[in-house]
Protein 1
Amino acid sequence: MQTTWQQPETGERKAGSAAPFPFARMEKKRDALDRLDLRFRWGRYGIRVLHCHLASFEPGHVIASHKHSEFEFHFIPKGKGSVRIGDDLHELREGLFYLTGPDVVHEQRSDEADPMYELCLHCEFVPLEADTDNGWGDSLEAAEAEECIRVLREMPAVPAFDRYHAMGCFLDAYRAWEEQPIGFYATLKQTIVQILLRAARVHASPGNGGNIPERDMKDHRFRLATQFIEDNESRPITLEDVAERVRVSPRQLQRIFRSEGGTSFRDWVEHVRLQRIREELLGTDRPIEEIALDHGYANPNYLYPVFKRKFGMTPAAYRRLHGTGRPRSASERAGNERS
């Protein structure tokens, strides 16, 4: 679950109305996430997290002019100050963030009278060899990662409001470190990816999200219906029950079975049950009446004509002919005598 934290649209507050600082818990162990060797694959990139922490700066503190080979995200959850990026000086206040990409020279200063806090994510994007798409969404994820990193590379080095609440993801990551839940690594990966995506959305063009392919709904509903029948063939099954499960009318579901399965709903249910019964006849010595009751035939006598119509013989004859206790042919007996 992502933390919801609404930053103010301005840095002004009424005098004496000090607001709680939601990131105070991260001060308990500021380097907790920095100590983790966190790296993961996202699409065709390896993401290596170098720093992920909360920092605080006394009034008037200056971080001297410097640059990095990687990407560094600077989010301001409290306080105010300024940043010089190249020749341009920008105001910093609560709710703003800026990104400094590779070789972007910057110098940051907190206000002379007001301490400033910063949530920092410093990470490296390493191009990797493309994986073969296996049909489970890898190509979609790769396209999204590619677009996100393209936007980040082209993002102007100027402060902007954290409109998509990326700051809350820092708190999610820290809480995961505190709790060490099942899926700790996956949780941290998701929070870092969310910071990247939410930062990129601030400058991304609308409608650049790509598309998830749409299903053929007739085929999808047919698959859902047939799987439900497979899972529940031992129970009473009606057309109305299955139609409700796949959220269509009984009449529409009947048409789906005709178009996608080439048969009627009733014949499909009967086919599934008879296949299960046939398997039990060959693999067990259970009485035929018990097998019939376990596969939806409340009246075992009804099974006999249905089975004979399908397989050309009664269940007992089928078991004698094909089961493990069937009479051996002359060639089988001769082969057994030779062995």
Protein 2
Amino acid sequence: MNKLNPLFPKEEGIFPYIYLANMCIPLFFMLSEPTETLYPGLLLLFIFVIVYRQIFWSSRFIILFIVIELVITLILSYFYNPLYLYIVFVFSFLMVRLQWKWLYWLCGSYAVLSLILIYKTIFPDNLVLIVSFLPPVFGGAILPFVMKASLRYKELNEDLRRVAEELKVKSEEKERLEESKKRMLADLSHDLKTPMTTIQGYSKALYDGFVQDEEQKQRYLKYIYDKSIRVTDLIDELFVFSKLDNPDSQINKQEKDLCEFLRQVVVEYYEQFDEKEMELSIEIPSERVVFSFDQKLLYRAISNILENTIKYNPEQTTVYISLKVSKNHLTIEIGDNGSGIHEDIADTLFDPFVRGDKSRMNDGGTGLGLAITKKIIEKHNGLVYVDTKPLRGSTNFIIELPLT
């Protein structure tokens, strides 16, 4: 059996029922009318209730419906009893849904017509009854403005609260960025100072003639060369990071087959995987997946993750590489069952100069690889993050790229 439709939408709560219940009072008075006026009056009340219900279900015709409610209220007041003006309280709260111009017109018209009725009723012999008629005049002519102004005030408060929260978030983000810049400069200073100190020390020893043994000289020269390469790599990486960090920098997107591109990247690292006896589990669709991307930059982003996977995991680790296509985005996953990453640094892993643990501080890396990866993915309007508790393996890097 089909369930009966509710009288009013659920989101409206119980208030429409409470206001409608007040119609019992005019119904009671209407039942005391003589037969010739009873049935027309009951018909008007029935129409009133039907229109009242429809206001909640047909918002497109709300102006028409409220006009009908006002007309029925005034008809009952003029031809039956002026006290029927009190019916206006049943639907006055709905008038706040009208635009201001319609609110002015309807409330103004109601005020004029109700005042004319009151004047005819109480003047000149029943002036004492004016107190009885002031509430419905207020309810139909002034109360909707008060309620609408109150709602507007509440909306303004919500807007101000939302703006305040946004300013607070932006302020916190600014402080975080400033702190990140300070930390990056400190880390950069440290990472440059360490190899430069080594270069200065060994070069001074050679320059002053403290090293006589030829084999030791060659070893010192190799130290100097290796440290200079590290400084050069660090400066190059820092340049790339700074360029990508600039919001005005552009990337060269071209439509290519992302599946074939990903296969080529994996093939280039196959020998390195083979040297560490790593097992590859690859899930890349056989059909073409055409996507617009910067081939050079995306290659670098994925390479940084693959190099970390090879460098920081033990031999015989299983590496999972997959490409999944959904309705709105592409997902590239690079995971493994190796050493894993501490959960407490997962949120900062893509910040500059952050490494997986302290033992990696002197591993020859620049600490900018994953930060560059994040910037590249963001340039593609994508998202990159690490899952430290994936369904399979111990670590899973996830890159999401939007299709639109």
